[in-house]
From TrEMBL:
Organism: Sphingomonas arvum
InterPro entries to which the protein is assigned, alphabetical: NADH_UbQ_FeS_4_mit-like, NDUFS4-like_sf
Domain of life: Bacteria
Ranges where the record places region Disordered: 1-22
Name listed for the protein in its UniProt record: ETC complex I subunit
Keyword Electron transport on entry: yes
Subcellular location: Membrane
Organism ancestry: Bacteria, Pseudomonadati, Pseudomonadota, Alphaproteobacteria, Sphingomonadales
Keywords: Electron transport, Membrane, Respiratory chain, Transit peptide, Transport
One Pfam short name: NDUS4
Primary location: membrane
Length: 93
């Protein structure tokens, strides 16, 4: 059975807005480890499901999709945003 990871889209540190925050992504996990190709030196796998990413507006929609298609899943919430507030003059100390 395929395993999926449901991730909350995290806000980038360079963004101040919240337009893309709160979106959820479903990614498939690889069942087999990646193999090293001796000819090219690249690392890859025969499983192409790991390249698929599905976007959802809510966590419940992503969970419903996984359950409808019989996928095992686990949820990975976004890490909390840590703000370091300081005065401009602190840059020159």
């Amino acid at each position: 059975m395929a395993t999926a990871r449901i991730l909350e889209t995290e806000r980038k540190t360079t963004q101040s807005g919240r337009a893309k925050a709160g979106k959820w992504t479903l990614e498939f996990e690889s069942a087999r480890p990646q193999a090293h190709d001796p000819l090219t030196g690249w690392v890859g796998a025969a499983d192409t499901r790991t390249q698929v990413r599905l976007a959802f507006h809510t966590k419940e929609a992503a969970i419903a999709y996984a359950e409808k298609h019989g996928l095992d899943y686990h949820i990975v919430p976004a890490p909390p945003v840590k703000l370091k507030l300081q005065a401009y003059a602190d840059n020159f100390r």
